[in-house]
Amino acid sequence: MKKENSRRSFLKNISLATFSALALSGCNTEVFDEFLQKNFRTLSKKEKDKIIKNLELKYKEKYGKEFHVSDKPAMEGTLFGYALDLSRCVGCRKCVYACVKENNQSREPQIHWIEVLQMEKEKGIDFADSNVQYNPEKVPEKGHFYVPVQCQQCRNPQCVTVCPVKATWQEPDGIVVVDYNWCIGCRYCMAACPYGARHFNWGEPTVPTEEINTEMHYLGNRPRKKGVVEKCTFCIQRTREGKYPACVEICPVGARKFGNLLDPESEIRYILENKRVLVLKQELNTQPKFYYFFGI
Amino acid sequence: MNFIRFITGSIRIIFHGSKTYFAWLIFLLLLILWGGSGYSKQLAHGLIETHMRDSVSWAFYIGNFTFLVGVAAAAVMLVIPAYIYDWKPIKEIVIFGELLAVCAVIMCLGFIIVDIGNPLRFWHMLPLIGTLNFPSSMLSWDFFVLNIYLLINLVVVTYLLYCIFYKKEYNKSFVLPLVLFSVPMAVAIHTTTAFLYNALPARIFWNSALLAPRFLASAFCSGPAILLILFQILRKTTKFEIKDEAIWKIAELMVYSMFIYLFFTIAELFKEFYSGTEHILYWKYLLFGLGEHKEIILYSWSSIIMGFIAFLLFLIPKTRKNFITLNIGAVLIYSSVYVEKGIALIIPAFTPDVLGQIYVYTPSMTEIRTAVMVFSIGFLLFTILSKIAISIVFDDYNIDSLNRMKNKK
Q1: Which residues does chain B have within 8 Å of residue A149's beta carbon, measured at their own beta carbons?
Q2: What is B136-182 written as a DSSP string?
């Protein structure tokens, strides 16, 4: 009996020792805290505030700049929608790079949330014969038109359905977001997305310090780590502050339109009512809030 | 206390064996080291060490996973014919089938872990502390059924060995329901894995109702192939008795499944090629390549040819009843299904990708080494567990021999 007892206390001691060694090995408890951090949607206000404060400090340490990380929730009465004028787009890819800069996408390895497909006018919207790698001196090229594709912010998002750990969800304002601290990196969402809108950090992402955008949203453009999935969030850090997404602002031909679908006076509602719109891969019943139309 | 003695007794067996046994263990350990050093590179630098990219975001790892789910399922499904045809050593078939299933499921979980970007966050899938997306996500279903399946098989096989070890009669009303339950569970794990792919409308190549039936048919080719060879080895080296007829019967059942698999595939091909919609692109890529991208043909046709030769060898009674050609056939069908599940099932679903772009994928060295690591761990486990089972079931290693050893000291 005595022997049994000493064995038990030995086990107890050794597990305590391992635990404290683990906790100490991170120099501080930061690594441990991050490992144990809960799903964003189950965090209390207090926990969120603490995490965000720590993040801001950490980024300051790393990049030597002041950062602002927001966790602003969706505004009531908003449902964001997007419309893209196919007859205006010239395929210049300015949106692609504005997006990269605004959203702190990795430069090496390169991640682009927007992909612009060059298509042949003769064939119409036909993915099989489209080309992402087009590289002429001048755009647009004769006989071609351009279809930029990014997250279509589906009302019925397959990516959310398949995620095994609820690391991605649709916010009340319709934006599909990812909790980068909860994503396990299984990439099931990437297999499920019919638009190639989800991108994986195959390696450690890098963003040059001088180019980093310091205005961030927790569910948006804050720096990611390797092994997690990311995607277009309609520039959540801008649009929840009443600004346009970066791609809308940069577009030199005004092909990109953005607004609140619930506001009858909005430009997006005007387009839906007065232009003929289409959505990509309608047959899959994903019900995108990203519309394409022909303005002229 | 009794159970602890059973475990220590079992562990003791592992360290006693012939030279070939130890050579095999060392060989596997070396492979684990070699593969592990490849995997450590992936751990350090991320999945960029693989050839997967955004276009082809799932590949060799998930293919291996799928293949092994099939092995795990088929190993136990063999209990049905063993029962129906009254092959004598049914208890032994259950034990070795379930041991194989246990190791295969562990390898499955291994392939999932090496495939995910944040293996440390695996706990997010656990009930209570994590947020498993059940029942929405098919992956959560798969995780669920695989773990139940692992548990059932582990319990049954441990209990049976434990009873034999203590020379007790096993409790039939405890074992029989579990074994009977494990058979539909075997069907369930492979069906769920098929549904995992099947349920994605974005991936047209997988979005066919025939996927799950094809999975089961192919699993019934590859799983028994391993047991077929294992039974022959056991028969030669231990007291395990299985009649030639039983082995030929397994082979015969494999021919049926090969035929069903062939039929399903032809039905699929007919629909795709005769209707000739744009969906045909993926099959074209698999079988003939698209434009100058023909890298995958090597895999698809080697799988088809190996499968076809195996089919003929198993179909013709003369070659089926000849153990040399039978074993060649078993190896061929195993390899055929491995290449089919490992590459030919996964890659065409991603090539061309959802936006029509072509990224040519073939496994990287890191992926091959990591796969070698997982397989070697599985083989090592299977070797050790089989060693224990053989000693207890055939070599009369039991509690008395353990006591005798103690007394000698």
Answers
A1: 355
A2: T-HHHHHHHHHHHHHHHHHHHHHHHHHHHHTTPPP-HHHHHHHHHHH
Burial of A252 (0-12, 13-18, 19+ CB in 10 A): exposed
Is B322 within 8 Å of B285 (Cβ atoms)? Answer: no
Domains, chain B, ordered by start: 2-399 (1.20.1630.10)
pLDDT at B409: 62
Q: Closest partner residue to B200 among A191, A198, A228, by Cβ?
A: A191
Say yes or no: A91 and A191 in one domain.
yes
Helix axes B365-393, B60-77, angle to 10 degrees: 20
Flag residues of chain B having pLDDT under 70. Answer: 409
| Contact partners, residue A157, CB within 8 Å, separation at least 6 | A170, A176, A286
Q: Are residues A141 and A274 in the same domain?
A: yes
Rounded CA gap, A140 and A117, in Å? Answer: 12
Residue B252 has which token pair?
């015969």
Pairing mode, strands A290-293 and A80-85: parallel
Please, which residues bridge with residue A277 across strands?
Answer: A293
A14-72 pLDDT, tens digit per residue, is 555 555 555 555 556 778 888 889 999 999 999 999 999 999 999 999 999 999 999 99
pLDDT at A293: 97
Structural domain includes residue A65 = no
* A233 and A147 both lie in a single domain: yes
Residues of B whose CB is below 8 A from A112? none
Instruction: For residue B396, give every residue at least 6 positions away whose Cβ sits within 8 Å of its Cβ, in sequence order, or none.
Output: none
Residue A62 lies in a domain: no
Q: How far apart are the first and last CA of chain A?
A: 89
Structural domain includes residue A214: yes
Q: Sign (positive/negative) of CA torsion B384, B386, B387, B391?
A: positive
Domain region containing A215: 80-293
Q: Does A166 touch chain B (CB under 8 A)?
A: yes
Number of domains in chain A: 2
Around Cβ B28, how many Cβ atoms within 10 Å? 20
Chain B positions touching A108 (Cβ under 8 A) are: none
Tokens read off for B236: 């030669």
Do both A9 and A120 map to the same domain? Answer: no
- Helices and strands, number each (H, E), in chain B: 16, 0
Nearest to A184 among B116, B138, B278 (CB): B116
Work out whether strand A80-85 and strand A256-260 pair parallel, antiparallel, or are unpaired. Answer: antiparallel
CA A106 to mean position of chain CA atoms: 12
Q: Which residues pair with A119 in a beta bridge?
A: A145
Look at residue A230 and tell me if it is in a domain: yes
Buried b (16+ CB within 10 A) or exposed e, B277-311: eeebbbbebbbebbeeeeebeebbebbbebbeebb
Backbone phi, then psi, for A217, in 5-degree steps?
-120, 140
pTM of the model: 0.92
Residue A198 structure tokens: 């989800």
Residue A243 DSSP label? P
